[in-house]
């Protein structure tokens, strides 16, 4: 059985990505949640993750222990187990990888100023010019995907892919900070919000005591 080590549901945006990807393709895994921002956090994470960060995936099937850290690398590993996590067509797959890598390495202003905090309501806050530029680029990606792949299904590339998982924390950020988007992007946001797995993650975030 896979083990996925994650942080707090309310704030650990990096953890949500592979967690959602695994849930969407029904890969069974044991969830190990570590409380962040505590004196013992560093030691707790280091027991599993060589980078000292979560998420971290451990696969002990087939008699060997595979440890994968970095959210995008974990998603890639999951896609080896469940290839449907990337679009079937080569061009769509390349684009899905590109936007996923862009999300993984970019959008610094958004990540810094609009932190994921599912329990919070901060409508209209954190709108610096840099955040505005990040939002504009996100909407450009989503609109572009939806204009070309809507006929194939309700996700960015038609069927659910790692690209949707990579942008999932932004969905919660846009709810918390009340960011409005054009109709095609709004439809995608609503598709994401209606996923049982997203509801499950939100429920865990709301239930946490801190
Ligand atoms: N680039 C990493 C980022 C991971 C990361 O920053 N994780 C945070 C939680 S969301 C963490 O482990 N924080 C714990 C700490 O720094 O003590 C990834 O994609 O997985």
Walk me through this protein's architecture.
It is a single chain. With 210 residues, this protein is of the alpha+beta class. It has two domains: 82 residues, Glutaredoxin (3-Layer(aba) Sandwich); 112 residues, Glutathione S-transferase Yfyf (Class Pi), Chain A, domain 2 (Up-down Bundle), CATH 1.20.1050. It contains nine helices and four strands, in the order βαβαββααααααα. A four-stranded mixed beta sheet has the order 2-1-3-4, with helices on one face. β3 and β4 form a beta hairpin. The longest helix has 21 residues. It is globular, with a radius of gyration of 17 Å. The chain starts with a strand and ends with a helix. The mean pLDDT is 97. The structure holds glutathione.
From the structure above, extract its key features:
210 residues; alpha+beta; Glutaredoxin; Glutathione S-transferase Yfyf (Class Pi), Chain A, domain 2; 2 domains; four-stranded mixed sheet; 9 helices; 4 strands; 52% helix; globular; binds glutathione
The number of E-state strands comes to 4
- Heterogens: glutathione
On the 0-100 scale, what is the average pLDDT?
Answer: 97
Helix and strand sequence: EHEHEEHHHHHHH
Q: Which architecture name of the largest domain does CATH use?
A: Up-down Bundle
User: Number of folding domains?
Assistant: 2
Q: Can you identify the CATH class of the largest domain?
A: Mainly Alpha
Order of strands, main sheet, comes to 2-1-3-4
Instruction: Return Rg in Å.
Output: 17 Å
Which bin fits the share of residues in helices? 40-55%
β-strand percent reads 5-15%
């Amino acid at each position: 059985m896979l083990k996925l080590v994650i942080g707090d549901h309310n704030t650990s945006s990096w953890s949500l990505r592979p967690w959602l990807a695994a849930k969407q393709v029904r890969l069974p895994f044991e969830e190990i949640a570590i409380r962040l921002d505590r004196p013992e956090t560093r030691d707790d994470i280091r027991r599993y993750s060589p980078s000292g960060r979560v998420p971290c995936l451990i696969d002990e099937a087939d008699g060997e222990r595979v440890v994968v850290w970095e959210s995008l690398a974990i998603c890639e590993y999951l896609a080896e187990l469940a290839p449907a996590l990337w679009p079937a067509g080569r061009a769509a797959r390349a684009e899905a990888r590109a936007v996923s890598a862009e999300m993984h390495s970019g959008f610094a202003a958004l990540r810094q100023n609009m932190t994921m905090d599912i329990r919070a309501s901060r409508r209209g806050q954190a709108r610096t010019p840099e955040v505005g530029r990040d939002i504009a680029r996100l909407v450009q990606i989503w609109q572009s995907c939806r204009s070309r792949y809507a006929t194939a299904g309700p996700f960015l590339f038609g069927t659910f892919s790692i690209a949707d998982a990579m942008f999932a924390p932004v969905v919660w950020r846009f709810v918390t900070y009340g960011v409005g988007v054009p109709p095609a992007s709004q439809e995608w946001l609503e598709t994401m919000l209606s996923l049982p797995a997203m509801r499950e993650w939100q429920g865990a975030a709301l239930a946490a005591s801190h």
